[in-house]
Transglutaminase-like domain-containing protein (Maribacter algicola), 338 residues
Amino acid sequence: MRLAFLFLFLSCAIGFGQFVNLNESDFSKADSIAFSYKGHSLKNPPLLTYELTKDLTTDVEKFRAIFTWVCTNIENDYQSYLKTRKKRKKIQKDRARFLAWNESFTPKVFEKLVAEKRTACTGYAYLIKEMANLAGFQSEIVNGYGRTPTLLLEENDPPNHSWNTVKLDGKWYLCDATWSAGRIMLDDSGPRFEPDYDDVYFLPNPELFTKNHYPLELELSLLEELPSLTDFIVAPVIYKEAFRFGIAPILPEKMHLEVLRDVNTSFELKIPEGLDVKKFRLALNKGGKDVEVQPKITLLKPGKIRMEYTFNRTGLYDAHIVFDGDKIATYVVKVRRN
């Protein structure tokens, strides 16, 4: 009964999410303020938050300055991520214990973060929440599963990622500071963080966000309906450029496909109205280099297209959906004889 009440309370309190169209927004002032405080100490978060927000007027601008500062001043610590993942794996089957451990763990992460300005996703999410709260905004840490082209999941994997919800101007939004800050490069010298601030995960479309973020508490998706975790795990991989252009794969729903040679294979996409569909391509890779081909493109209705291509050779292909030279999504296609 208590869990049911809690779910109802969170659903009513959080509601359904909004998103900000980055192509129609000007955050130059907020970003300039954030950049002017680069390298600033974290030992006095209330003062830092005040300095970042005091000259901005809207909630979204104020939160933007916080988000940009966090993403451009905190390093992603891969070793901390590995330690966190190991602990999560031990207690993943006990949901209550996992949530309790995660809640007690984040303040410890914050202590290290203040001292070293290095952390894993849990620390990013905790810092975003704390600074948002200091600025007068409600924010929650969301724990769940993150899925990228280099971070695929299996059914029994433990939760591996954390991000945030935030309430601005009376509306709830999503964000992921970890993935906006840069990337972890794995090379011969070991893992290293490569800073590369990209704001595509700043207040994105919740429908697109849940293509690679799956929360443990489903109401924190900010959607009325969410696919099952199994459906999430087997779905096509999407890239951050999908967020930049607002392109979402719809069909097929699974990444791994089996199709027949010389028979049409189709892919359906949700796109912003007015997008130049002539810039879509398929890039096929059969174990060598990507080869771009021109699919047949049909506008099904405003905001929805179908791409069709006929594979004339058998084999296993990585089939990348490409827009204007950037990869949007990847399918793995096994082509067999009729």
Observations:
- The longest strand covers residues 326-336.
- Residues 6 and 247 are 34 Å apart (CA to CA).
- Confidence is low (pLDDT under 50) at residues 1-13.
- The chain has two domains: 13-235, 244-336.
